[in-house]
Design goal:
single chain, 334 residues, TIM Barrel, 8-stranded parallel beta barrel, 12 helices, binds 2-O-methyl-1,6-di-O-phosphono-D-mannitol
Length: 334
């Protein structure tokens, strides 16, 4: 068997090691603000730090989590006992990663569509993130399904930004996670999602190729192929799994180091069940695991509710979700 021993390929393989997935804890200020506000928790620096400390210090988290994606503020923070969050994660055997995009803005001349920002100065920021201990990056593009959307221009512009970020990340010695998220908002049928996901992945991989991104040194973070959240036709987990794997097999080169799904607003239980259904199908050329944000964190955030006394309950809730997702992966060798 041929093995690629480049350091980035090794890091990518560590992130998708058997029985493990990624904790996405990279909510930007607006997003964490929204999640906290729903529970009437003030989004202060102290509360955000306390919450992330709770997550990263969960005992045994490293048994099922290989990496954690952080936001800029979090990468610079320290735990109460003194070590930085980077050190805390490493002590659990979890690799620290960093969200490097700066969020979305309206795409000029394309009402209702967005482009992800953050390429200006990215080379310098990556150098700094690497110095702070980050081992991988994540850039998220957002594609909305609506009448006539997404347009080919929106897909192309976002694919270009994803590829530029991936190339710069590899140049900086960081493994890029390429995240073209097709949102589940809307009442469209699953066929329409499959169509949009196909067009998106085709363009993303064409553009990654043009930018000479090394596929064995990157991970893809897609949504699952789901019907719109408001679609009236129910679709079974098995159908979702089949359509997802079919779409990925047709559009993702086998050389990609791994596929790490986002949860995208599915309930934690649905995200896990569908991940399990995808893995039950087998015969995929890449490891298929999770890089969930809400589907890992929501029960823990609710249990914590901003109260120090609830930390053990919140950590138990996070560990439970992490273990459930581990159980949704193919069994790892003893
Ligand atoms: C799609 O969002 C990513 C995965 O999270 P879910 O599993 O909850 O869908 C997530 O990594 C996202 O990119 C971060 O939460 C950052 O989002 P914002 O909106 O703060 O850029």
């Amino acid at each position: 068997m041929l093995t690629n021993s480049s350091p980035l390929a090794q890091t990518a393989r560590v992130l998708v090691a058997p029985g493990k997935g990624i904790l996405a804890a990279d909510e930007s200020f607006p997003t964490i603000g929204k999640r906290f506000a729903a529970l009437e928790i003030a989004s202060t620096e102290a509360n955000r730090r306390a919450y992330r400390e709770l997550l990263f210090s969960t005992p045994s988290l490293g048994d099922s989590i290989s990496g954690a994606i952080l936001f800029d503020e979090t990468l610079r923070q320290k735990s109460t006992a003194g070590p930085s969050f980077v050190e805390l994660l490493l002590s659990q055997g979890i690799l620290p990663g960093i969200k490097v995009d700066l969020g979305t803005t309206e795409l000029a001349n394309f009402p209702g569509e967005t482009i992800t920002q953050g390429l200006d100065g990215l080379r310098e920021r990556l150098r700094e993130y690497s110095g702070l201990g980050a081992r991988f990056t994540k850039w998220r593009a957002v594609l909305k399904i609506k009448d006539g959307l997404p347009t080919a221009t929106c897909i192309e512009a976002n694919a270009h930004a994803l590829a530029m970020c991936a190339a710069l990340s590899q140049e900086a010695g960081l493994v890029p996670i390429v995240e073209p998220e097709v949102l589940m908002d809307g009442d469209h049928a699953i066929d329409r999602t499959a169509e949009v996901m196909t067009a998106t992945l085709e363009m993303v991989f064409k553009t990654l190729g043009r930018h000479r991104v090394r596929l064995d040194e990157m991970l893809l973070k897609p949504a699952m192929v789901l019907p719109g959240a408001a679609c009236p036709q129910p679709v079974s987990d098995e159908e979702i799994a089949t359509r997802t794997l079919q779409c990925l097999r047709q559009n993702v080169p086998a050389a990609v180091a791994g596929i790490v799904f986002l949860s995208g607003g599915q309930t934690p239980a649905h995200a896990t069940q569908r991940l399990a259904a995808i893995n039950r199908l087998g015969h995929a050329p890449w490891p298929l695991t999770f890089s969930f944000g809400r589907a890992l964190q929501d029960p823990a955030l609710k249990a914590w509710h901003g109260d120090l006394a609830n930390v053990p309950a919140a950590q138990a809730a996070l560990l439970d979700r992490a273990r459930q997702n581990r159980a949704a992966l193919p069994p790892s060798a003893p």
